[in-house]
């Protein structure tokens, strides 16, 4: 009987471990809404107290903006914001979100629609906002995918 080459065995073992690691979901993507929110429209459902935010599309964000009572949070740098931003959005740079609640966002229960340029900083900022106690955080990615109007300053 032929013995299995130890190097080949190690390669198979590493491939199996890599596949297992890739199959688990990471990050803080959303779970199902709490049962009490089941009757509410999907875009208006509050987030779970466990500390998750909801990833939504630009189209869903626009629909929520059109209905009103949301705060659009742009987490890019000030120069990026000045070059073009969503009308009515407020600038709270991701780098400035730390261990204390941003003064621009006084209401922990406000519906926050967070975006950046491509979606990386908005994900980071959404995580930070949840850790600070915000309960209704929605990440709609980057302005690069925003098909609607922007304004400049």
Q: Report the strand count.
A: 5
Rg: 20 Å
Strand content: 5-15%
Helix content: 25-40%
Overall mean pLDDT stands at 81
| Overall number of domains | 1
- In spatial order, strands of the major sheet run 1-5-4-2-3
Question: In terms of structural class, how would the helical and strand content be classed?
Answer: alpha/beta
* Major beta sheet summary: 5 strands, parallel
Q: Judging by the overall fold, what is the CATH architecture?
A: 3-Layer(aba) Sandwich
User: Distance between termini?
Assistant: 76 Å
Give the topology string: H per helix, E per strand: HEHEHEEHE
Q: What coarse outline follows from CA principal-axis ratios? A: globular
CATH class: Alpha Beta
Low-confidence stretches: 22-49
Number of alpha- plus pi-helical segments: 4
Give the full name of the CATH homologous superfamily: Rhodanese-like domain
User: According to CATH, what is the topology?
Assistant: Oxidized Rhodanese, domain 1
Signal peptide: 1-20
Domain Rhodanese: 66-152
Keywords: Signal
Region (Disordered): 25-46
Task: Give an account of the 3D structure.
The protein is of the alpha/beta class. The protein has one domain: Rhodanese-like domain (Oxidized Rhodanese, domain 1), CATH 3.40.250. The chain is 30% helix and 14% strand. Strands 1-5-4-2-3 form a 5-stranded parallel sheet, sandwiched between helices. Strand 4, helix 4 and strand 5 (136-142) form a beta-alpha-beta unit. The chain is globular, with a radius of gyration of 20 Å. The termini are far apart.
């Amino acid at each position: 009987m032929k013995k299995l080459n130890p190097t080949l065995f190690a390669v198979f073992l590493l491939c199996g471990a890599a596949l297992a690691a890739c199959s688990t979901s990471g990050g803080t993507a959303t779970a199902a809404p709490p049962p009490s929110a089941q009757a509410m429209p999907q875009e208006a459902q509050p987030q779970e107290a466990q500390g998750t935010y909801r990833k939504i599309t630009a189209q869903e964000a626009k629909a929520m903006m059109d209905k009103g009572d949301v705060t659009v949070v742009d987490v890019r740098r000030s120069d990026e914001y000045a070059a073009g931003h969503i009308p009515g959005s407020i600038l709270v740079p991701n780098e400035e979100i730390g261990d204390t609640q941003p003064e621009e966002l006084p209401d922990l229960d406000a519906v926050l629609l967070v975006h950046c340029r491509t979606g990386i900083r908005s994900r980071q900022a959404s995580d930070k906002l949840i850790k600070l106690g915000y309960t209704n955080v929605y990440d709609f990615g980057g302005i690069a995918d925003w098909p609607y109007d922007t304004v400049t300053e």
